[in-house]
């Protein structure tokens, strides 16, 4: 049977090595401390055998047998609780190992029982499939022994299970008490510590009883000596047990003294708690008294506030009574004044009847003045229009004279070019008459010209001519754009002049209205008194003042609008001048390029006419051709620079045109909106609003006629 247990222990050691725990587990001596078994249980179920439980196991007991046995007891107790509480399989007493033999002698039989319990926990936990797969990876012999151990563990009778009293009188809540939270108060901690000490005393007493039983058994064995070897072994074991008994007695005495100290401390703490409770009761009674006093203070404060409010109401009633007396006195004065005003009203009614005829005459004269003002405004608008058209004609005359001068200069240049071409045509004819062999149509002369004037030079000349034509076309397009911008500028100036004239007319109307207001104020001062007529005149005066204020606002808006329009016009004229200046520079550059081109052509002609193949040295013609090629390259570089500058200026002109178009569009929309607001009838039109509507109605047909008259002039 012992061999079977040793074989079981070896196979379970092989199975235990598959967990790869940090402590060694190759021999029974490695497992005597219980540390490797604790790490294996932590891997089997980390929720039950957690890190706190691992910290309760001594890591390095060394040769201390007592620490080893305590570790093994803690492991065995945890296994029993895990089987009962988690797995629901109580462990039989016959399956429980003797941990003292494991810790002292590393007994394989008892160690096999302990490992058999660990195996039962592994195959019954939540990760049982993983552990079963791990068992299947072992050798067949080891698998056979492990399976027999599982069957032996599962097929035994479970009726006589281990009760808590058979092992240390531990209940299932001992580990829970061991891991209590540290956040409780000091009294609870002391009580818990007392309970733990009592449990330790119970364990030590039970261990003492078991050791006493073992001692008695060993003494009986000593009484029945079998042989000398057995008697020596029992004697050694007896001595060892006696020493252990003495150590346990000392530890028991120490624990009892500690328990007494803790009891005394607990009594002191209970006494302090009673004192604190009495003090708390006294303080609560004082707090209740303070609260009652506070309530009385609040009531007194409310009553004082109410008394202040009543005093304030009494003062207000007294003040109102004085005001009532003053009002009665004022009523009597007003009644007397009303009687005098009634008499004055009757007198003013008679004067009003006399002033009725004068008012009709005043209205007729006012209408005549309005008609004369409208005619004067129309004449002023016509005068401004003719002045503006005169300025436009003068500007057109100046532009026409400039264009005429430019055409005359271009005509002179074309005449010079025509004469040069005629001279160039006459020279080959003279050569042909002097020597018939130099006829241009002859193949010899053609070969000579081809040799003297290479193909690259001819291609360069043709390319320069094409570029000259293209630049001329671009210049014409730029001039058209300049004319279009000039036309837009003229329209802007025309609109600005119209707004300025309207501004002047509004200022004149404003001065006239101010004069009317002054007249009305003088009339009021002459009349005097608070009559009905004076009230009407005051109303008229207020109306005129309101109209005057509206006219001021209108003039201010128009002045701001004119100021907004003037900067874009100034900037557009400045940009147009810059564009004209850049175009003049480009014209001058083009003329300079044409002059150089003509000089190069003349030089090439002279070289062709003067050189003779017989008299010319062999290296002369290539030198001249090289010089001509270098000059042509320089001219190409300059032309490229001019093209780049022209592209930059063209992009700048396009941007400026876009800005001008957007500005004109915004200005047109603003003017159109302003005109629509002025034409829209208001619910309560004032005198100035009616005058503006009348002037706009008269100005509308005149403005349309002026635009129709100016359109043919623009076309011409």
How is this structure best described in words?
This protein has 716 residues and is mostly helical. It has three domains: 179 residues, Orthogonal Bundle (Actin-binding Protein, T-fimbrin, domain 1), CATH 1.10.418.10; 184 residues, no CATH class; 236 residues, Helix Hairpins. The protein has 17 helices and no strands. α1 crosses α7.
Secondary structure topology:
Elements: H1 2-16, H2 28-31, H3 35-44, H4 51-55, H5 65-87, H6 99-105, H7 108-124, H8 128-136, H9 140-155, H10 174-178, H11 186-223, H12 228-434, H13 443-452, H14 455-527, H15 532-610, H16 620-679, H17 687-715
Helix pairs in contact: 1-7, 1-9, 3-7, 5-6, 5-7, 7-9, 11-12, 12-14, 12-15, 12-17, 14-15, 14-16, 15-16
Give a quick precis of the structure:
Keywords: Coiled coil, Cytoplasm, Cytoskeleton, Microtubule. GO terms for molecular function: dynein light intermediate chain binding; microtubule binding. The protein has 716 residues and is mainly α.
| CATH classification, class level of the largest domain | Mainly Alpha
Q: Please name the CATH topology of the largest domain.
A: Helix Hairpins
Helix content: over 70%
Q: How much is the radius of gyration in Å?
A: 64 Å
Mean pLDDT equals 73
The CATH architecture of the largest domain = Orthogonal Bundle
| Uncertain regions spanning at least 5 consecutive residues | 157-184, 431-453, 612-621, 698-716
What count of helical segments does DSSP give? Answer: 17
Query: Could you say how many structural domains there are in total?
Result: 3
What is the straight-line distance between the termini?
Answer: 137 Å
Helix-and-strand structural type: mainly alpha
Task: Tell me the strand percentage band.
Answer: under 5%
String of helices and strands? HHHHHHHHHHHHHHHHH
Q: Describe the global form.
A: flat
Largest sheet: number of strands, sense, barrel closure: none
- According to DSSP, the number of beta strands is 0
């Amino acid at each position: 049977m012992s061999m079977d247990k040793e074989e079981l222990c070896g196979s379970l050691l092989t199975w235990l090595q598959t967990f790869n725990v940090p402590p060694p587990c190759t021999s029974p001596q490695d497992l005597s401390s219980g540390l490797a078994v604790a790490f294996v249980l932590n891997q089997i179920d980390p929720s039950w055998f957690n890190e706190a439980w691992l910290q309760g196991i001594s890591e390095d007991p060394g040769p201390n047998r007592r620490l080893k046995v305590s570790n093994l007891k803690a492991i065995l107790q945890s296994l029993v609780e895990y089987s009962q509480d988690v797995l629901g399989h109580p462990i039989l007493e016959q399956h429980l190992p003797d941990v003292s033999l494991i810790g002292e002698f590393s007994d394989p039989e008892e160690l096999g029982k302990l490992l058999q319990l660990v195996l039962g926990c592994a195959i019954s936990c939540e990760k049982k499939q993983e552990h079963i797969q791990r068992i299947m990876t072992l050798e067949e012999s080891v698998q056979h022994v492990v399976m027999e151990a599982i069957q032996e563990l599962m097929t035994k009778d479970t009726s006589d299970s281990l009760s808590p009293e058979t092992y240390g009188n531990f209940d299932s809540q001992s580990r829970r008490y061991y891991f209590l939270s540290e956040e409780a108060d000091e009294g609870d901690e002391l009580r818990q510590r007392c309970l733990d000490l009592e449990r330790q005393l119970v364990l030590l007493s039970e261990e003492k009883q078991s050791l006493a039983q073992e001692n008695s058994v060993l003494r009986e064995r000593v009484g029945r000596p079998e042989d000398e070897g057995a008697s020596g072994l029992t004697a050694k074991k007896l001595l060892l047990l006696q020493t252990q008994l003495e150590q346990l007695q000392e530890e028991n005495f120490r624990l009892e003294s500690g328990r007494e100290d803790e009891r005394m401390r607990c009594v002191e703490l209970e006494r302090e708690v009673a004192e604190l409770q009495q003090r708390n009761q006294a303080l609560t009674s004082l707090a209740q008294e303070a609260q009652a006093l506070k309530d009385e203070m609040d009531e007194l404060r409310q009553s004082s506030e109410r008394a202040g409010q009543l005093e304030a109401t009494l003062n207000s009633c007294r003040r109102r009574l004085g005001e009532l007396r003053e009002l009665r006195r004022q009523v009597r004065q007003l009644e007397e004044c009303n009687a005098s005003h009634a008499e004055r009203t009757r007198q003013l009614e008679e004067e009003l009847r006399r002033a009725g005829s004068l008012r009709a005459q005043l209205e007729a004269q006012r209408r005549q003045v309005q008609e004369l003002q409208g005619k004067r405004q129309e004449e002023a608008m016509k005068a401004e229009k003719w002045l503006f058209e005169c300025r436009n004609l003068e500007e057109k005359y100046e532009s026409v004279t400039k264009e005429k001068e430019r055409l005359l200069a271009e005509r002179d240049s074309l005449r010079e070019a025509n004469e040069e071409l005629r001279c160039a045509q006459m020279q080959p004819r003279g050569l042909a008459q002097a020597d018939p062999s130099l006829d241009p149509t002859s193949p010899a002369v053609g070969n000579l010209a081809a040799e003297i004037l290479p193909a690259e030079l001819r291609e360069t000349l043709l390319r320069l001519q094409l570029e000259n034509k293209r630049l001329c076309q671009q210049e014409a397009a730029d001039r058209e754009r300049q004319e279009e911008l000039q036309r837009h500028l003229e329209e802007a100036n025309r609109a600005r002049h119209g707004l300025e004239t309207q501004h002047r007319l509004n200022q004149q109307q404003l001065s006239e209205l101010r004069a009317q207001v002054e007249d009305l104020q003088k009339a009021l001062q002459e009349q005097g008194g608070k009559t009905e007529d004076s009230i009407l005149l005051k109303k008229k005066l207020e109306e005129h003042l309101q109209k005057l204020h509206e006219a001021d606002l209108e003039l201010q808006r128009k002045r701001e609008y004119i100021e907004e329009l003037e900067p874009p016009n100034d900037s557009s004229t400045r940009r147009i001048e810059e564009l004209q200046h850049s175009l003049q520079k480009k014209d001058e550059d083009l003329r300079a390029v044409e002059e150089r081109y003509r000089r190069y052509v003349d030089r090439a002609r002279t070289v062709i006419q003067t050189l003779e193949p017989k008299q010319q040295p062999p290296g002369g013609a290539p030198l001249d051709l090289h010089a001509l090629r270098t000059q042509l390259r320089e001219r190409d570089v300059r032309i490229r620079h001019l093209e780049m500058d022209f592209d930059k200026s063209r992009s700048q002109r396009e941007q400026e045109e876009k800005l001008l178009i957007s500005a004109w569009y915004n200005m047109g929309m603003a003017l159109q909106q302003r005109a629509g607001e002025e034409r829209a009838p208001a619910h309560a039109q004032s005198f100035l609003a009616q005058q503006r509507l009348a002037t706009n109605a008269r100005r509308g047909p005149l403005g349309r006629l002026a635009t129709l008259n100016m359109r043919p002039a623009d076309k011409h």
